[in-house]
Please model this.
Amino acid sequence: MMFPLLQAAVATKEYMGAWAMMGAGIGAGLAIIGAGLGIGRVGGQAVEGMARQPEVAAKIQTAALIFAAFIEGAALFAVVVTFLIQSKF
Model:
């Protein structure tokens, strides 16, 4: 359903960057979804680890926060790249 519409949009000079705009939108969405899943998994595994070994909860919490920051940084980088692609067209 969407493919003929995109072909029609690319055929005109007005929408030469339609594929890039669609790719930027999909890329930003996938980056945010991936970051959400990653941070959720890190948080869940950290809570599970703290429940199994409460004596090392502080170390697990620190490591989980650092990993969550790395994931968020990678997602932010991906979203910035998609916005740069979008701004070219």
